[in-house]
Design brief:
Layout (H helix, E strand, L loop, with lengths): L1 H13 L10 H15 L7 H11 L2 H24 L2
Helix pairs in contact: 1-3, 2-3
């Protein structure tokens, strides 16, 4: 995992976003994948990655996608609970 963090760190030291010089779905996916390692302190030696996660997670597009995902999971849980599964 650290090898992947090293490679991402090197890329994100040179640019703000992963692809196309702008915020894209790649950034939503990658920043979401990095949120948990960040919370667990696994990115403490990766300043560019920590800044990237913060930058991405604070964007309205990320927040909307995350809220939509949580709503989807909650709806599926409600259906499962009603079915007694």
């Amino acid at each position: 995992m650290e090898q992947r963090f090293d490679r991402l760190e090197a890329v994100l030291k040179k640019r703000e976003w992963l692809a196309a010089s702008r915020f894209t779905i790649a950034d939503i996916l990658m920043s979401d994948a990095l949120r948990m390692p960040n919370k667990l302190g696994k990115l403490e030696n990766y300043g560019a990655l920590r800044a990237y996660v913060a930058r991405a997670c604070n964007r309205p597009a990320f927040q909307k996608a995350h809220q939509d995902q949580l709503a989807h999971f909650e709806a599926a849980d409600a259906v499962r609970d009603q079915a007694g599964i």
